[in-house]
Design goal:
The chain is of the alpha/beta class. It is 43% helix and 16% strand. The protein has a domain of 250 residues: NAD(P)-binding Rossmann-like Domain (Rossmann fold). The structure holds nicotinamide-adenine-dinucleotide and thymidine-5'-diphosphate.
Length: 361
């Protein structure tokens, strides 16, 4: 079967492709990625080597009507898994337009092409087909001190990022209800693990703490996120793909609430234990409380009981294990991080992937 994965050169997408090719031996993956600043084909170098006949890369924009149509015309696509997005809240505050363009229009373009290819409303056989929209718990807005997001929580997004993800979720629902497009939405909490772009909290803090740079904590550091190790998310997505009910949505969380301050303290302490203090001082001394993010959601926490009971999934990796593995990965892969920080990863993909691949398949 052919699986069209979008945004596969990013953090979760690259982890998912590696996971899927290992788990499902008869699957072929077509990865469509525009290679924005967040997309790095080096994340899948091993996959390209290990699965030359099961992994194909196409450099294209999910909003590009011709390019996406071309892919559907050439291949009988069974699953579409849409990871492609602009994904960073702070960037969405500084420049929201690209978020609207990619997250909303790009998703619309994928939905339209899936509908045209599968034509469920004309009675064409769409059994076995599935459109999986990878969404976030941030669509639900903020929680107070108590309570959890369930699948029935109202959408109440705070940032341009979460508003654009909420809009794309609504489009996916509309395509299910109006055209019968077999589609599922998953709303996952904050992921962490290998290959996460070093602008997000955990990799940013690990890299700054390794170098002895300041660790900027927004506001009072008491904001809470529900952390999930990326491989647990991948497991959940495979369960949804194989057993999920079209038209349904599933929340996915790590059942692991942590204040940002606590997360940074754990990173500092683990690095001190492993490598000794930096510049003669414990790394906690690098923690700096800085201006808060505008519209900063106070607390996210996900009720995952639906996917746990209906699809028999639960997170396996504890925060202690996950953060230790993640820290280890960033220590072992400083070249990967440095190539991003000095911009040379862009050069790598320019030489590896010429214009030849642009949307032509
Ligand atoms: P990421 O920023 O690491 O990767 C995004 C990928 O999408 C990159 O490879 C980028 O090149 C690609 N992309 C961007 N615009 C594109 C376009 N127009 N056409 C084709 N490709 C494009 O993001 P991530 O953290 O891996 O998140 C993946 C998905 O999961 C996103 O949809 C995000 O909203 C969702 N999500 C993320 C988290 C999290 O904690 N990271 C949690 C829940 C949901
Ligand atoms: P982030 O990784 O950007 O994910 P999201 O905003 O999607 O939850 O941020 C996680 C939390 O960490 C969030 O509450 C903002 C906070 N944060 C900081 O305090 N300092 C930072 O430098 C960053 C990037 C995030």
């Amino acid at each position: 079967m052919y699986v069209l994965v979008t945004g596969g050169c990013g953090f979760i997408g690259s982890n998912f492709i590696r996971f899927l090719l290992e788990r499902k031996r008869k699957t072929k993956v077509i990865n469509v990625d525009k290679l924005t600043y967040a997309g790095n084909p080096a994340n899948l170098e091993d996959v390209e080597k290990n699965h030359p006949d099961r992994y194909y890369f196409i450099k294209a924009d999910i909003s590009d009507k011709k390019a996406i149509r071309n892919i559907f015309d050439r291949h009988e696509i069974d699953w579409v898994i849409n990871f492609a997005a602009e994904s960073h809240v702070d960037r969405s505050i500084l420049g929201p337009e690209i978020f609207i363009q990619v997250n909303i229009f790009g998703t619309f373009n994928l939905l339209e092409n899936s509908r045209r290819a599968w034509q469920p409303e004309n009675g064409k056989e769409s059994r076995g087909k599935l459109f999986l929209q990878i969404s976030t718990d941030e669509v639900y807005g903020t929680l107070g001190e108590s309570g959890l997001f369930t699948e029935r929580s109202p959408y109440d997004p705070s940032s341009p990022y979460s508003a654009s993800k909420a809009a794309s979720d609504h489009l996916v629902n509309a395509y299910f209800r109006t055209y019968g497009l077999p589609a599922i939405i998953t709303n996952c909490s904050n992921n962490y693990g290998p290959y996460q772009f070093p602008e997000k909290l955990i990799p940013l803090m690990i890299n700054n703490a390794l170098k002895g740079d300041d660790l900027p904590i927004y506001g009072d550091g008491e904001n809470v996120r529900d952390w999930i190790y990326v491989e647990d998310h991948c497991e959940a997505l495979l369960k949804v793909l194989e057993m999920g009910v079209p038209g349904d949505k599933y929340n996915i969380g790590g059942s692991c609430e942590k204040k940002n301050r606590e997360v940074v303290e754990v990173i500092c302490d683990q690095l001190d234990r492993k490598l000794g203090p930096v510049g003669g001082r414990p790394r906690r001394s690098l923690m700096k409380y800085v201006a808060d993010r505008p519209g900063h959601d106070r607390r996210y926490a996900v009720d995952s009981s639906k996917i746990m009971t209906e699809l028999d999934w639960s997170p396996k990796v504890s925060f202690d294990e996950g953060i230790a593995m993640t820290i280890e990965w960033y220590i072992d892969n400083t070249e990967w991080t440095e190539s991003i920080l000095d911009g040379s990863y862009m050069e790598y993909y320019r030489t590896q992937y010429g214009e030849r691949l642009d949307g032509k398949g």
